[in-house]
Amino acid sequence: MLRSPRLRIAAALLVTFAASQAAQACEVWRDDLGHLRTNCKLSLARKDYRLDVAVEHSVARYQLALPNLLPRKNKVFTTMGQVDLHVDIRNDGTKDSLATDVALMVNVVDPAGVQPTVTHALTAAVPAITVGQTPRIYLGTITLPSTSQDWDLQLISAVDPPTMSSQVWGRVYESNEMDNVRSRLCRIYGPNPDTTGPEQCD
Predict the structure, then answer these.
(1) How confident is the model at residue 42 (pLDDT cuts 50, 70, 90)?
(2) Which of 109, 140, 169, 184 is most buried (CB neighbours < 10 A)?
(3) Given 3.30.70.270, 2.60.40.2420, 3.30.200.20, 1.10.10.10, which CATH number is that of 69-193?
(4) pLDDT band at 44, cuts 50/70/90?
């Protein structure tokens, strides 16, 4: 609140001064969200007083709370030629996610290149995941072509894959749609293992 005529007059003069000197005294720009921001430093000098005013205007950044689902690991358990397949899925966002799906493509490859590659496509339901949680989702079990040799597994998992109704992003609107896929190459050893190849599946 202005308490003297002199200050009220100074304020009025300052407004006039600011209007005429804005191009020289103020910076005006738009931030990366497109909001208008200003930073003004105004000064008014007279014989018996000097008035300096700094004005800064900014718009608070609003960040939506969104989930972010990502596959952390393609997990493999092998017993007597049977391979159980799991995917660890983490919600790394700031909001609990909705329920969705996860897809896993598995190529069973003969390292020697003699046997043909066998491809499996698996899907499973993913429940709603709270922030910071990483549940393990079971995709299914496949059978190796034989247990007499090594086999390489090429695994590609995709959480919240596109659907018929949402052919771009999937069911869950996420803060990052670019980290939903993870690939892995590992080897299941036979009786005479070749340990010079990929890491052992586990």
Answers:
(1) low
(2) 109
(3) 2.60.40.2420
(4) low
